[in-house]
Request: fold
Amino acid sequence: MAGNFWKSSHYGQWIITEEKVLQGHEIDSKSLSLDDVKKLHIFFANFIQALGETNKLRQQVIATATVYFKRFYILNSFKSIDPFLMAPTCIFLASKVEECGPISIQRLITVCSSLMKSKFNFAVTNEFLYRPQHVLECEFYLLEIMDCCLIVHQPYRPLTTYAESLGPEVLNTAWHIVNDALRCDVVLTHPPHLVALSALHISSVIHNNEQAQQWFTDISISIEKITQVSEKIIQLYELWRGFDEKKEIPAILFRMPRPRMSHSGSLSGSRCSTPSGMR
Reply:
């Protein structure tokens, strides 16, 4: 996404402190542990990724949708809106914001239903009961929570710029690391260029790239800041490595607070916080 990050609503309103992120994760602490919440975010990022890829959407759209999802649930309980509805809603909104062309809500719902019966059948046994009007209603709540701040600056552009000096091998691995980082909180707490540099830092270590050490010494950005983000991403990998999704997610979803659909078909559980409470 073009434009100046430092003058954007992303920087001005949606770089969140570590303390407030922790407060957000503790909203459902009566039902879920901190690790449970982190595993749910991994699971639903995987679900959004599969949803986007099946709809042949660009990674930029998938990344923006994942950030929208994380923004919503850092301010609200999982009980406010079913995350299985929020996930396709985030894809639907991100596809419009990233100008990737119109996407059919009905096709989105069909793909959701198909994925829940196939790739994600270990997690759910119920049918996907939501209809286009539910996606549109959910989109309204999402827009309200984000205060219509829809532009998300992603790490991909600074990543490709920085990586010119480090070679395609380092770039390719770093690209995958940036995608994986969507499953943790660094996309909420740090500017995209720091996420990009941290991915390159980890990738350079993986590939034992000798010129990278001098390159990181020469750049004007503090290596301590880069290392802090790198450590957060490594913590994600450590949690993810021990996370048996197929065995653990059914029990976590069972404990997760869920909204109830009203008789009129509206999202009766939708009692969402105002965005000013977090920033």
Notes: Confidence is low (pLDDT under 50) at residues 274-279. The radius of gyration is 19 Å. The first helix runs from residue 9 to 14.
